[in-house]
Amino acid sequence: MGSRYGQFCPVAKAMELLDERWTLLVIRELVCGSKHFNELRRGVPRMSPALLSKRLQRLIRAGVVERRPCGNRVDYVLTDAGRELRPIVDALGTWGTRWIGELGDEDLDPHLLLWDMHRHIDHTVVPGGRTVVRFVFPDAPASTREWWMVITPDEVDVCDSDPGYPVAVSVETTLRRLVEIWRGDVDWAAAIRAGEVVLHGPASIRRALPAWFTLSAYATVPRTGRATVRLP
């Protein structure tokens, strides 16, 4: 059970469910379209499978999430009550973008970054067939330095080991810089001109690559000019 505040206030009652660690991030993943347990795990890579299962069960009991058998797998989908949380998640993302600009090194997770990016591919401008993008983060530990994104007309997958397909283009940059580009803090073209992002591949694909990604849903949120809210 979550915290009991002992208040009739509806904000307090809502937070008795939502303020447990990871709960709103699980809801964020469901809002973003993840349905299967493994998809949810990839959206919260630092959350243990056991804790994810526990949070899902509590959300199911609360009537916020529904468990639906789907062939050999199970879908987790938001109920009407869960879908009403979408504007709350969006508002939190907008507020965090506008007022909290602070990013510590511990916040930079290549798995989460590429998992978020894979949901924002403009398939209308990516070459047909299978296109593989390799990402290299020279500043990351050896175990998380190289990643691959496999893009087909029907799906996009993120791999932390070489999938064995020819690479169309490689992106070499620091993890922090790509996070800043994805968040809308830094422009793709400016980072490339400054040599902070180096692309390897045919010139036509190097020119086209930035348009393949539509950036974070919060990339266009106006900033305050500087972060005014400091995390404790």
From TrEMBL:
InterPro entries: ArsR-like_HTH, HTH_HxlR, SCP2_sterol-bd_dom_sf, WH-like_DNA-bd_sf, WH_DNA-bd_sf. Residues 9-104 form the HTH hxlR-type domain. Coiled coil: none annotated. The keyword Electron transport does not apply. PROSITE patterns: HTH_HXLR. Gene3D superfamilies: Winged helix-like DNA-binding domain superfamily/Winged helix DNA-binding domain. Keywords: DNA-binding, Transcription, Transcription regulation. This is Winged helix-turn-helix transcriptional regulator. It comes from Pseudonocardia hispaniensis.
